[in-house]
Amino acid sequence: MTLPSASGRSQLFVIDPIERLNPARDSSVALMQAAQRADLPVWVAHPADLSAALPARPTPDGHGAWVRARRVQLAPMALEDGAWQVSDPWFRLEEPALLPLEPDVFTHVWMRKDPPVDEAYLYATHLLELAERRGVRVLNRPAAVRGWNEKLGALRFSHLMAPSLVSSRVDQLAAFTAEQGEVVLKPLGGRAGQGVVFAAAATPGLRALLELVTAMEQLPVMAQAFLPGVRAGDKRILLVDGEPLGAINRVPSGAEFRSNLAVGGQPEVTALSDRERQICAELAPVLRQEGLFFVGIDVIDGRLSEINVTSPTGIREVERLAGVPLADQVIARLPAG
Questions:
Q1: Residue-averaged pLDDT of the chain
Q2: pLDDT tens for each residue of 75-102
Q3: Buried-state track 53-66, b at ≥16 Cβ within 10 A, e below 16
Q4: Which residues are catalytic?
Q5: For 32-36, 191-195, 322-326, which range has the lowest pLDDT when averaged over its residues?
Q6: Would you state the pLDDT for residue 257?
Q7: What CA–CA distance (Å, rounded) separates 154 from 141?
Q8: What is the distance between the alpha carbons of residues 271 and 259, in angstroms, rounded to a whole number?
Q9: Measuring CA to CA, which of 45, 90, 252, 291 is 20 to 30 A from 70?
Q10: Cβ-based neighbours of 251, under 8 Å, separated by 6 or more
Q11: Long-range contacts formed by 282-287: CB under 8 A, 24+ apart
Q12: Are 270 and 333 in contact (CB under 8 A)?
């Protein structure tokens, strides 16, 4: 079993079980492979592998976060005829080791567990904060991940968004729908377009639909004015330390209005407009200040839609379509440990 060296260059990725990831599409795998190419040892763990321990005789800084992690070796992948060639097997795990989350062990910890941001996820961010206090750089910063719901966080920049309402009250949501004519309703804890529905003022049973999505007025949802421009695509822009390094345009398939790749949206190569660069420039200082190092924003027809901070995707598509070594660029910009 290989243990991290005292150089502190090892990277820990807190992810979903690695065997469930699709290496041809997963951004976490792309980042791990890039770290390996940069001669940075890569380790993986699940949020359940995090723990904290106090010494028998506590000292002022005696608390410590620990992780049961496994060193991983990843097979290289080549792009041939527009498709990633994946080896079988594409990874090899070493035996697990219980290790302290200290900067002389892990320089960076990547929190890349997919939503939902449930209790287990939130507790993991608290444990990672212990490591952060010891000098480990956690990407993205745990407190910021907790504070930036991916729908509600965008409201900090409401002037960049389409008309929006967050409410659990059916009367308010119905009135907003009548005012806008057409809206999309988004669950605040959703991901990858799951649970997003289209509604119009003339939709039969609108109030019943609003009762359903709010769980009988117990949960707030986000209603946003429907932007017909989504039929031309929804841009996912990936920002690293506030700088836009890559983007893809996601086009809905058929009669589907959702453009997320997970629900059939088709990625295409794209360039950023002046308006989109202005949006990125306005977000950049806030993202840097909050410790949100790797972020994916969604922009539809020049309007900010969401700010994704948990496990933004899109690296593989940018690399495949634009020929940009995006994952390597991200690793090259790692903040100092």
A1: 90
A2: 999 888 878 899 999 999 999 999 999 9
A3: eeeeeeeeeeebbb
A4: 151, 186, 236, 250, 258, 298, 306, 308
A5: 191-195
A6: 67
A7: 17
A8: 17
A9: 291
A10: 231, 232, 233, 234, 259, 265, 266, 267, 268
A11: 282/157, 282/160, 283/157, 283/239, 283/242, 283/307, 284/239, 284/242, 284/243, 285/242, 286/156, 287/239, 287/241, 287/242
A12: no
Q: What is the pLDDT of residue 181?
A: 96
Q: How many residues does the chain have?
A: 337
Map the chain to HEC letters. CCCCCCCCCEEEEECCCHHHCCCCCCHHHHHHHHHHHCCCCEEEECHHHEEEECCCCCCCCCCEEEEEEEEEEECCCEEECCEEECCCCCEEECCCEEEECCCCCEEEEEECCCCCCCHHHHHHHHHHHHHHHCCCEEECCHHHHHHCCCCHHHHHHHHHECCEEEECCHHHHHHHHHHHCEEEEEECCCCCCCCCEEEECCCCCHHHHHHHHCCCCCCCEEEEECCHHHHHCEEEEEEECCEEEEEEEEECCCCCCCCCHHHCCEEEECCCCHHHHHHHHHHHHHHHHHCCCEEEEEEECCEEEEEECCCCCCHHHHHHHHCCCHHHHHHHCCCCC
Scanning the structure block, which residue is given the tokens 């190419």?
Answer: 37
Per-residue burial over 161-174, b = 16 or more CB atoms within 10 Å of its CB, e = otherwise = bbebbbbbebeebb
pLDDT in tens, 146-181: 999 888 999 999 999 999 999 999 999 999 999 999
State the pLDDT confidence band at 6, using cuts at 50, 70 and 90: very low
pLDDT per position as a tens digit, 21-62: 999 999 999 999 999 999 999 999 999 999 998 665 555 555
Instruction: Match 């910021």 to its residue by tokens.
Output: 144
